[in-house]
Amino acid sequence: MTADYRFDPLQFPMPVRTGLFPRRDIDLYAELSALVGVCVHGFMLADLGRKAWDLRKKYWQPGEGAWAAFREAVHQCYPHLPVEEKLAQDGHEFDSLYELAVYRWIKPTLPSSVKLDVHPLVKGCTFQEEAFADFKVSSIQSGKSCFIEVVGLFDRTFTAYSSTQKARKDETLRRLHRYPPNQRPILIFKDMVCDPHQVTAALRQAIEAVAEGGLRTAA
Hints:
Blueprint: H1 23-36, H2 50-60, H3 66-77, E1 88-89, E2 92-93, H4 97-106, E3 114-118, E4 121-123, E5 130-132, E6 135-139, E7 145-151, H5 163-177, E8 186-189, H6 190-193, H7 196-211
Parallel strand pairs: 7-8
Antiparallel strand pairs: 1-2, 3-6, 4-5, 6-7
């Protein structure tokens, strides 16, 4: 009988808590998710630096289940990171991971004198009488308010790189221009969401404007 020299996984099992993916990649994904505040998707990795871009090339771009398998491996090592991040939280259904991330950022930063409204009504819009914004912060004492829009499809250059961006660029511009002149919103673009300093600064501007009475009531 001819000897079989092929590798036998049953004879040589994997070490405990290891798998097909390097632990350094799993740990990096967990670090990036903690940085942003959500389980980062493949498209987010483009705005998170060179190492994140390498993860994108290795696991998200190849397809054929590589990304799902990688996320499963992450979940095994970090059970608090789900295989798929749900867009519903606290009774709200968000349109994107970017919007969800901003929600998770803004909640703990609000002073007791400021309240947060999710998907509030905007009146007196240019292209429609009534519409809904992403967020609104309001002073409980004065009633002064400030809207916040999350532009999850574009970075601050507002350049359309993909076919989806090109198809939705005009729609996004109309959404931003619909606000009355005295209710211009704070904008948080997708690359800002991936930069804690930028998103924190934008949220601080909204809160400080309300606290200082710098904006007129957006009722």
